[in-house]
Amino acid sequence: MAKIVTNNLNLWYGDFHALESVNVAIAEKRITAIIGPSGCGKSTLLRVFNRMNDLIEGTRVDGEVLVDGANIFDAQTDLVTLRKKIGMVFQRPNPFPLSIYENIAFGLKIHAYPAAKGELEKIVEESLQSVLLWDEVKDKLRKPALRLSLEQKQRLCIARLIAVKPEILLMDEPCSTLDPQATMKIEELMRELKRNYTIIIVTHNMQQAARVSDDTGFMLLGKLIEFNRTEAIFTSPSDERTENYITGKFG
Ligand SMILES: Nc1ncnc2c1ncn2[C@@H]1O[C@H](COP(=O)(O)OP(=O)(O)OP(=O)(O)O)[C@@H](O)[C@H]1O
Ligand SMILES: [Mg+2]
Q1: What does the pLDDT look like over 31-75, one tens digit per residue?
Q2: Which runs of E-coded beta strand occur in 54-163?
Q3: Would residue 63 count as lying in a domain?
Q4: Of 117, 179, 193, 248, which has the highest C-beta tally within 10 A?
C-alpha cells in the first residue's frame, strides 16, 4: 500500500530546478531510504512531503503529492494537520531548553490536545516508552533535556513527534552527528517504529541505507534515478549511475 505518491513533482528555488519530475510511491509501514550525493535534492524532497518548503521564499512546485490519496497542494489542505500527521526529525537533535517532560508535553499543547493532567502524564510515558528512553529518564523527567546525550536527545525528539500521533516520520540524516554505537541504537529504534509508522530516511551512509531500509531511492541532480527494494538497489542496480554511486565511483 502506498502512503505517499508523487506524480511529476517539480520544485524550483527561484530559477533553480531542484526537483525534476519525481515519481515515487512510498510504501506504508516500511522504511524508505533516499540516497544520493550532496545537493541532489534529498532534503528538498523530504521537506515537500509536509510542505515545509512553503516556508522558503521563492519556492514553486508543480505536480502532485498524494498522502493517503489526497493532494497536499490542494487549497483545502490544513498545514497544521498535515505536519501533525507527517513529523520531521533533523540532523542535529533540537530539544527545547525545557525539561524532558515539557519537551514532550509541548507538542501536545501546540496541537491543542484536550489532555487532562493524568492523560498528559500517560502520553509522556508512552511516548518515551516507544523510543525506548523511558527507563533511562523516568527518574529525571523534570531535568533539562539539554543534559541528555546526543543520542538520547535524538530519541527525545522522536518521542516528541510520536506524542502527537503522526503516521509518517521524515528523518533527515538523523544519525550523522552520532557515533557508531548510538547510530545502531537509533537504527534499532527505527526497525521497532516501522511496525506503526511509515519512515523515510535521508542518509549519506550507504551501509545504513542497506542495513535499515526496505526500499531505496537514488537521486542525482534533482532526479530520482532509480527506486526499488533496497536489496535490489545494492546488489543489482539497473542504472549505471546508481551502480557508480553505490560502488563509490563518485559522490
Ligand atoms: N533555500 C534554498 N534556496 C536556493 N537553493 C536551495 C535552497 N535549498 C537548497 N537549495 C539547492 O537545491 C539543491 C538541493 O538541495 P538539498 O538540500 O535538497 O540537497 P541534499 O541532497 O539534501 O544535499 P545534502 O546531502 O548536502 O544535504 C542544492 O543545489 C541546493 O544548493
Ligand atoms: Mg540534505
Answers
A1: 999 999 999 999 999 999 999 999 999 999 999 999 999 999 999
A2: 59-67, 70-71, 86-89
A3: no
A4: 193
